[in-house]
């Protein structure tokens, strides 16, 4: 039996060796195709960059310049967004390490976050806290100062910075005179969050220790007004009045305290 061989039709003269679809587009055709794509997907920066190259090859320099600039702006925006996301991941990793009391590892990850995105709020906050816990108050100060620059309306940032300034005012810690800066930070905290009792109590103590009795009185009077159901606010106000020899006001505050909480007790029992 004769061996069979594959049968193929002879190629006709002029027939293409490849499909027409495999042929590269002419520059004009590619430009038209990309322009249609960008009409639907204007944020495709890679397509814009290619369009700029094609415009350049056709001598359309102004059009090329415009498209390449747009593609760079889009790519930079994407990179910035990626950096913010990567910084958040490093900060999250640092938070996990910190929760496990792996302080050195946590510090390294928070630093990585700031290397990628210097304005990462979580990394700045946590590095400030790490150094404050280590009693490295100058380092903590630097991070908290950066934090309040980025988040000037965050009361917790100001509260933490105040604490560092107060620590630095201690002659056994540093030669800095930062008590007034600490006071201003506590006042800023209360401006942003008038109900922040910890700031009120700390500011009261500092004011009394530095003979700023008017400030101590004002702070605690405001604390009571902002936190009328908090017994500690009344007790501290009464203490300030007594220390300032404002005995009539102290007695009035005691009476107000008794009446308010007697009423609350009555309301609770009647509910």
Search tags:
Serine Threonine Protein Phosphatase 5, Tetratricopeptide repeat, mainly alpha, 73% helix, disordered N terminus, 271 residues
Describe the protein.
- The chain is mainly α.
- Among the domains are: 136-190, Serine Threonine Protein Phosphatase 5, Tetratricopeptide repeat (Alpha Horseshoe), CATH 1.25.40; 194-271, Alpha Horseshoe (Serine Threonine Protein Phosphatase 5, Tetratricopeptide repeat), CATH 1.25.40.
- 73% of the residues lie in helices and 0% in strands.
- It is built from 12 helices and no strands.
- The chain has helices at residues 27-40, 45-57, 61-99, 103-116, 121-133, 137-150, 155-168, 179-192, 197-209, 213-226, 231-243, 247-270.
- It is elongated.
- 27% of the residues are buried.
- Mean pLDDT is 86; it is low at 1-20.
List how many beta strands DSSP finds. 0
Major sheet size, sense and barrel closure: none
Task: Please tally the helical runs, counting DSSP H or I stretches of 4 or more residues.
Answer: 12
CATH class of one domain: Mainly Alpha
- Proportion of residues in helical segments: over 70%
Our measurement of the CA-to-CA distance between the termini, rounded to an integer number of angstroms, reads 109 Å
Order of helices and strands: HHHHHHHHHHHH
Rg on CA atoms, Å: 35 Å
**According to CATH, what is the topology of one domain?**
Serine Threonine Protein Phosphatase 5, Tetratricopeptide repeat
Secondary structure class reads mainly alpha
């Amino acid at each position: 039996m004769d061996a069979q061989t594959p049968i193929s039709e002879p190629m006709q003269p002029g027939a293409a060796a490849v499909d027409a679809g495999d042929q590269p587009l002419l520059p004009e055709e590619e430009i038209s195709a990309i322009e249609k794509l960008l009409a639907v997907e204007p944020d495709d920066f890679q397509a814009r960059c290619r369009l700029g190259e094609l415009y350049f090859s056709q001598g359309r320099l102004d059009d090329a310049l415009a498209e390449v600039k747009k593609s760079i702006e889009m790519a930079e925006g994407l990179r910035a967004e990626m950096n913010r996301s990567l910084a958040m991941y490093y900060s999250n990793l640092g938070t996990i390490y910190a929760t496990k009391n792996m302080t050195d590892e946590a510090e390294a990850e928070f630093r990585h976050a700031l290397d990628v995105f210097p304005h990462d709020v979580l990394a700045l906050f946590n590095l400030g806290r790490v150094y404050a816990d280590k009693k490295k108050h100058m380092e903590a100060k630097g991070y908290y100062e950066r934090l309040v620059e980025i988040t000037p309306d965050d009361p917790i940032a100001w509260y933490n910075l105040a604490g560092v300034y107060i620590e630095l005012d201690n002659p056994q810690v540093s030669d800095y005179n930062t008590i007034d800066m600490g006071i201003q930070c506590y006042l800023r905290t209360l401006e942003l969050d008038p109900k922040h009792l910890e700031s009120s109590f700390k500011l009261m103590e500092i004011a009394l220790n530095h003979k700023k009795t008017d400030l101590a009185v004002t702070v605690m009077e405001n604390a009571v007004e902002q936190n009328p159901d908090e017994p500690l606010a009344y007790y501290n106000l009464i203490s300030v009045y007594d220390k300032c020899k404002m005995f009539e006001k102290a007695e009035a505050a005691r009476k107000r305290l008794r009446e308010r909480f007697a009423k609350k007790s009555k309301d609770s029992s009647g509910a």
